[in-house]
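Exercise: predict the fold of this chain.
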Amino acid sequence: MNTTALWPIALGAFEALGEHYAPDMDQAATEMGLSGWYGGWLLPAWWAEPEPISSTRLRLRSPYTSTRYYNERLARAARHGFLTPTAEAENEYRLTELGRQAAIHMMEAMYAKMAGLQPLSSTDLERLARLLHRLVMSCLAVPEPPGKLAILTSRRIDPGDDVSVVVRIDQYGGDLAAYRDDAHLAAWQPYNIACHAWEAFSLLWCGEANSLDGLYKKLERRGYWLDEYRQALEDLIQRGWVREDVGGYRVTVLGREIRQAAEEATDQYFYAPWSCLNLDETEELRVLLLSLCDGLRLDS
């Protein structure tokens, strides 16, 4: 089968798994006084220990979010007692004991939920976990590019083998998603464009927005101002990748070529490690992932 068809299937399965435990994590966050605003900083701060957390470190893993947004979140967390500033640098923090307990409480809630799931037979779950683990190890072993910052960050939180097989599958899914991010960064960063401008360009390319207001509404969660997206559009026009029409912004022929080339490079980088599986194993992985997704829907 075509290997490039596998990631959408895998992503669907991992997202279905996340839908099972996300409410439990939200409930745990609410119990710790973090309802609605723990995302993006609490767990990364815990995973980074003993190193401090900062907007600079967070943007290494999630470069599409603004420095300003992260600094505001981290400062708010410090005011509420979950973080404490370091003496070494401005806008740099460490978890307090309260913050550490909040992170642990949320992870325990997530693991407990997954431990109770049985979307496939135990034999099939173990086989799926082994195949995914081989893929993850292959991603770590292939030469650069891409770099491996995201997947190495993800691997730091591997809980090991003393957890349920569903937790291990979720971990490997997160590892592969991180490597996909590594692959995409390697594909577009040679164009020397700002992260938020590239993301806006991608939304125009795939038809999810065609106006400044539409882009801002889609990307407001990233913490950039409306004017920063206006400047990003001006940059894209200057490059010849986008033009402004009466009906909104459109990607030019050159822009489509550039964005498609980046997508193909992403796939080339991302799927290279998948050669560790033979054709029979690749087909087996496809079937197991589809069965996992079906089983999770029935388990909901």
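Check your answer against the key: Residues 200 and 219 are 8 Å apart (CA to CA).
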